Amino acid sequence: METEVLVRAVGLDVNEVPDGYVIYQTAADRVHYLNKTAAIVFELCDGARGADDIVTRVSQMFELEGKADTEIEACIQSLLKEGLVLSLSK
Amino acid sequence: MIARSWFHRVTLYTSDAEIFQAIRYLECDPEVAAERAEDLTISVEPYRSYYRIVQNGEVMDEQISAQGVTESLHAKLMFLSLADFPSAPIIHAASVRREGRRLLLVGPKGGGKTMLTLHLIREGYDFEGDENAFVTPDGVVPRPRGLRVKESAVPLLPHLTKILDAAPYYESLSGPRIYNLDPREAGASCWRIERGRVDAVVLLRPNHGGSSSMRPISSLDLVRDVMQECGLPETGRAKAVGAIAKAIGNAKGFELSLGELRGAVACLDRLCEELA
User: Fold this and answer.
1) Which residues of chain B are within 8 Å of residue A17 when distances are taken between CB atoms?
2) With 80 as the cut, is the pLDDT of residue A1 above it?
3) Could you tell me which of A40, A81, B43, B81 has the fewest CB atoms within 10 Å of its CB?
4) Does the distance separating the beta carbons of A17 and B224 come in below 8 Å?
5) Which of B220, B241, B249 shows the shortest C-beta gap to A13?
6) Which 3 state secondary structure label does DSSP give B247?
């Protein structure tokens, strides 16, 4: 059975700063700024997890008990829209 | 007279009194802690009805007016600086030091960098540059250049009136006079430029006529705002962004609402005490 997983895009130059990530996207010649939470979401996009799994993990990590699921989902959608992560069938 | 880039020491010669006065605007002779320095010789001489600019024996340019000569040499010096660090991003920032700690004051043209820097010099801060800093993998390199003081700022600097009266200046057809001021004339005990780390970056937010206050900002906001005042090289942009993230992202970041200057200096004094 096919499942959708999220994976970080190639062609990204990731720089860690104390409050998150500064990412240079070569293809688009753009700089992206990810806060700490977005950086964690980005790291979890490792090709082994789908969006729902990532939402659950981040929620557990910060003991949010599902209260911020919408925001985490929005973060994932934003990463997808900006081309920083890709959705693949596995 | 001497003009500098990080890796170039340019000796400017002329036998023409008008040209001498005009190109003194470019004079800049700090102590530069560069690994090496290449000597260049540029002379400007009257030739028929124009001036001829000759670099190391080769004609570089021919200009009609003294102002044209100044503009041509100004561009030449800027190109030399850019050629020193072709892959480095360049930030619009003044650089000052106190007890070995470097502060970058980042802000747009007209944002108050020079006025604040002049007051900091008066309070004993060491001056490096008031306009640009290259960001290299081994730290930032302030671009050697004298302080540029606008004519409109002179009434606000009564302690420098006499010095500015005698300082060389550039005057465009439409714009105000801009003075070239050696920081040592403005009270700095020395003028030394080094490559090195940045301890704090202060974003200047003009608050003309108001009071000054300062607050810390996150490293992410700091890098984002500095990028707005940054020129990236045409190639190797990923490395350039990485260099900024490393140099700026790891410095302490602040936003200074820049109103009255005494209050602004007090804010930076407190910051320096914290850094120490």
Assistant:
1) 219-220, 223, 245, 249-250
2) no
3) A81
4) no
5) B241
6) helix
Q: Give alpha helix (H) positions in chain B.
A: 17-23, 66-84, 113-122, 161-166, 219-228, 237-249, 261-275
What is the tens place of the pLDDT at every residue in B215-254? 999 999 999 999 999 999 999 999 999 999 999 999 999 9
Chain B residues with CB under 8 Å of A18 CB are 218-219, 249-250
Q: Give chain A's end-to-end CA distance (angstroms, integer).
A: 8
Is B78 in the A-facing interface, judged by CB distances under 8 Å? no
Q: B168 CB contacts (<8 Å, ≥6 apart)?
A: B21, B22, B24, B25, B27, B179, B180
- Supply B254's token pair: 């602040």
Per the CB < 8 A criterion, the answer to whether A85 and A6 are in contact is yes
Contact A88, A5 (CB under 8 A): yes
| Element at A44 (helix H, strand E) | helix A36-44
Angle between helices A69-81 and A36-44 (to 10 degrees): 70
Residue B62, amino acid: E
B242·A31 Cβ contact <8 A: no
CA distance B24 to B41: 15
Token match 């100044």: residue? Answer: B70
Mode of pairing for the β-strands spanning A20-25 and A30-35 = antiparallel
Instruction: Specify whether the CB–CB gap between B212 and B105 falls below 8 A.
Output: no
Name the residue of chain B whose CA is nearest to A11's CA: B238
CB atoms within 10 A of CB B80: 18
Give the model confidence (pLDDT) of B80-106 as tens digits: 999 999 999 999 999 999 999 999 999
Give bridge partners of residue B154 from the DSSP assignment.
Answer: none
Instruction: Strands of B15-166 (E only): list them.
Output: 31-32, 38-47, 50-55, 58-63, 90-98, 101-106, 126-129, 132-136, 139-142, 147-150
Whether residue B88 contacts residue B233, with contact meaning beta carbons closer than 8 Å, is answered with: yes
